[in-house]
Amino acid sequence: MPFGPGHHWSTSNGFANRVIGGWQISTIHRWQSGRVFLLQSGLGGTTNQNDPGVILNGITRNQLQGLLDVRKTPDGQVFYVPASLISGTGAANPSFIAPCNTPGKVCSRVFLTGPRFYRADISLSKKTNITERVNFELRAEMLNAFNNINFFYPGGAATSVPTVSVSSNFGRITNAFQDPNSTDDNGGRIVQLVFRINF
């Protein structure tokens, strides 16, 4: 940051320069769309062992994607689909999405995108020279600085395209975000302080 000796804003006071000088700020912002998933009938494979897909009734894939958003129910459950797309049994509402149940028939393969992800990591640090070769560093690091809630849908971590069955437990989110190759995502905000002497 442009404060202290040799920078745009400086003073003739040595102590003041030590206080205002040596500050640095760095950030990493990660903003991405959700992962792609495939709707499946949940009725098992066809003759070639692949799921036969689903039937969209009076709704297009783009219209369906436009309806998807994270919502929380009064009892604390979290869903990624509106209540109108879920039947009383917890399966997809067949008025909009029905499993392809005609033997030997292959219906639509519908790919959709899961919840978006945003996270900001911010670091603020200050170096103060003690001698010409020794300095003291103070750093505050805030991981997920704005404490964004990021959901993971569907299922758990996977490197391949995950699937969602329309025949049971449709649209329910059960996991917080995690990277496909790791379960080490920090989730909520974490603040840590670092004190270091460099020589």
Give an overview of the whole structure.
The chain is mainly β. It has one domain. Helices cover 7% and strands 34% of the residues. The chain has two helices and 14 strands, in the order αβββαβββββββββββ. It has helices at residues 14-20, 61-67, and strands at 23-32, 36-40, 54-56, 71-72, 78-79, 97-99, 111-113, 117-129, 135-143, 151-152, 163-165, 172-173, 175-176, 190-198. The strands form five sheets. A four-stranded antiparallel sheet has the order 1-8-9-14, covered by helices on one side. A three-stranded mixed sheet has the order 7-2-11, with helices on one face. Strands 4-5-12 form a three-stranded antiparallel sheet, with no helix packed on it. A hairpin with a 5-residue loop joins β4 and β5 (78-79).
Lateral arrangement of strands in the main beta sheet: 1-8-9-14
- Total number of helices: 2
- Secondary-structure element pattern, one letter each: HEEEHEEEEEEEEEEE
For the biggest sheet, the summary is: 4 strands, antiparallel
Which secondary-structure class do the elements indicate? mainly beta
Give the overall pLDDT as a whole number. Answer: 83
| Proportion of strand residues | 25-35%
User: So what's the overall shape?
Assistant: elongated
Instruction: Please give the share of residues in helix.
Output: under 10%
> Unreliable stretches, pLDDT < 50, 5 or more residues?
none
Q: What is the straight-line distance between the termini?
A: 22 Å
* Count of folded domains: 1
Number of strands: 14
> Nearest-angstrom radius of gyration?
26 Å
